[in-house]
Amino acid sequence: MKPGTVFVVIASLCAAAYVVFRVGFASIIGAIFSVGWAGFAALVLYQEAYQPVALRYEVGEHSNFILVPMMLAALKQINKWKPENIQEYCARITRKPIELLREGGFWIEDENYRGHHLFGIRLPKHADIGKIKQQLQKNKISVSVRGDALRVSPNIYNSESDLMKLVKVLTN
Question: Tens of pLDDT along 52-70?
């Protein structure tokens, strides 16, 4: 296992917990099991109808005990690094890219109201999300699409130059 892999696992778990906290568990479960579920990109496009028969009650409770030691190792590593140091690092590497995106007409929440390790980029009205997704893939940039916005989750494995690549793709 590469160094940092365990951290990616725990970062993913933290991101999932954040989504549950912000959106609400019932909303997420309702969206996932509704008819026409198209993945997390469509999470903001809620449907009233549910999947047929027992699928509507599926809550994903599947045991995977091999993840427990990985999660424990990740938590120990986070405690060594200290969450406040991770936030400071993420603030440092995102400051300039966010400033440039705002100048380019993108909307990003004020840093007083969001974490530095997870934020959304609301695209300008004229932006073509399909073309943006193609360019992101072409440039091997991983972000999550949420409706007409992008969810970015930088962490210790990123650098400011990684985020500047994102800025270049979005502003061209």
Answer: 676 667 766 667 888 899 9
- Which CATH number does the domain housing residue 135 bear? 3.90.1150.10
Model confidence, pTM: 0.65
95 lies in which domain range?
87-171
The token duo for 138 is 């072409």
Place of tokens 């568990």: 25
pLDDT of 13 reads 52
Q: Which two tokens stand for residue 160?
A: 């400011």
Same domain (yes/no): 17, 54 = yes
CA dihedral 27, 130, 151, 168 (to 10 degrees): -170
Which of 57, 80, 103 terminates a domain? The answer is 80
Residue 115's pLDDT band, with cuts at 50, 70 and 90, is very high
Q: Of 113, 114, 145, 119, whose CA–CA distance to 132 is shortest?
A: 145
Identify the domain boundary among 65, 80, 95: 80
DSSP letter, residue 96: H
Beta bridge partners of 149: 122, 146
C-beta separation of 93 from 119 below 8 A: no
